[in-house]
Design a protein that fits this description.
15 helices, 3 domains, TIM Barrel, 592 residues, Copper Amine Oxidase, Chain A, domain 1, seven-stranded mixed β-sheet, eight-stranded parallel barrel
Length: 592
Amino acid sequence: MIREDRRERERQPERPKQRRPRRRRRRRNPQAIPVLIALALILLVGGVMVGKMLYEKYSPSKEMADANEYFNLSDSQEMAVLFNEEMLEDKAIFVDGRVYLHVETVYQHLNSRFYWDAAENLYLYSLPTELVSVGVGSSEYTVARAKQSEDYVILRTDGSEAYVALDFVKKYTKFTYEFWEAPNHVQIFTEFGDKDVVTARKSTEVRYKAGIKSPILTKIEKGSTMYVLEEPEEIEEWTRVLTKDGYIGYVRDKRISAATKETLAEPEFEEPEYTSITRDHTINLAWHQVTNMDANEQLLNRIADTKGLTVISPTWFSIADTDGNISSLASQSYVNYAHQQGLEVWGLVDNFKDGVSTYETLSKSSSRGHLVNQLVSYAIQYGLDGINVDFEMITEDTGRAFIQFIRELSIMCRINGIVLSVDNYVPTASSRQYYRAEQGVFADYVIIMGYDEHYAGSEEAGSVASYGFVEEGIQKTLEEVPKEKVINAIPFYTRFWRTDGDGNVSSEALGMNSADQKAKNNEIEPTWDEETRQYYIELEYEGSIYQMWMEEERSIEEKLKLIRQYELAGVASWRLGFERPSIWDVILKYVN
């Protein structure tokens, strides 16, 4: 059966094979090929450009900053100055392998005790008992007139500008410095102790500004440390730094460690000791106004009723001319009698002569030195115990010369055992040129003239020495001068004021008894004013207003309480002859 079926199948005719349909070949368009190539190129170029743009946008710049431009250097001799954590506008100069700072840079930033005499081309420094003097273009200098020398030129000038070798300044000043050439810059440190530092985790760059596109100032090796600087506004991902090779810029936070402390060691330096002559008792000084030789004969009468007085200061000396000569009213018999009464004599020198410029006198070392020598010579000749300097109306441009005069006078006084005291206004912004802090170093006593709150030329009537005015003068002086050197001066006088109907103000100075008599003559009972802590009178007469803030026992005691409260060295009084005898009983309570 199976075989029959197979045969049957074998007899069946074969089916023809079916043909697959042929695909038609598309004709290629030869014009499309260039278009495709162009599109591909556009895409390729675009991709490259986008990639380049992205790379340029997000990759750090490798541009190096122009170092001379960064340091603002105009020639090969000029040198930038980095002072602690800032770059100064002032420039140094680099000559013969040494750094020279401008004398004003030294004054402003390193040591204001150096004094530049532009008139006589001298550079001076005052030690406790010696004056150091340097001339221009020399390696020699004098210390108390003895010659010494260095192996370099100490002082150079360029036109009207003067530059001093940094190594010479370092002899008298505590600081460290390091310098680099090409580009020329010097790093000076005067602040020492612990400082914040960061360490480079890997080699990196410090940039001019906080940004990867900012030019590179300097490259930092792995492990290098940098000082961290304060930034006014916090900048994310960047830290402002000072590198150890003297660049201030920015470094990326991810390239540095967290801040740690590093100690910047102080250099070895011994500060000179400016000793002072002090008394073991409270100073009770009174000024004696002497206008001619005959006035010296009044000493006996002037001190007859005083109690507890320790010092008398006669107004004997005055600058006579700009060469430093002085006029003198000194009297040997006066000194002898004062000493017999147990009083010290501190001769006063003033600058009150009309037509004599204090600036011209003090700004030249020759005339200033002559003035010092004359004063000390007179003090030795007459056996004076001290010199009292009363230079008033010192102008801003005279200030530096004035304090240099005090320094140089203090040297001679210290050598000869002469007490040096200096009179000062109550501190205000207009009297900062008196340099009270420096007086506190060189002078033995700094005296506050705690009066003239309102004076002869005032545009309005007022107290000569109100309580608040006196206290403020003491407080501000103590901010600069040690209390054991401060003496506060009180007035024995007041002013009787007249303000007319047009607002014109005039006054006359009156002693205590004369002021009392003025009130009695006008039948006015003084009333106590708690604000000024003085008795006050006021009256109107014929269209004018008359006023007086009186100085007497009660008001004087209020001022003496301040002297005790602030533990001052003593009291001074202007002037003998204005007081009444009972005042001395009040003063005596506070000086012994």
